[in-house]
Amino acid sequence: MRRTPAASVIAAALMGGALVLNAVVSAHAQQGFERRPLPPPPGAAAPGSAAAAPSNGAVGVPSSAITDSLGDVVVVQPPSVKIPNQYAVFAGLDKITGRITSFEVAMNETAQFGALQVTPRACYTRPPTEQQDTTSFTEVNEVTLKGEAKRIFTGWMFASSPGLHGVEHPIYDVWLMGCKTALPVAGQPSASR
Question: Is residue 14 part of a domain?
Answer without folding.
Answer: no
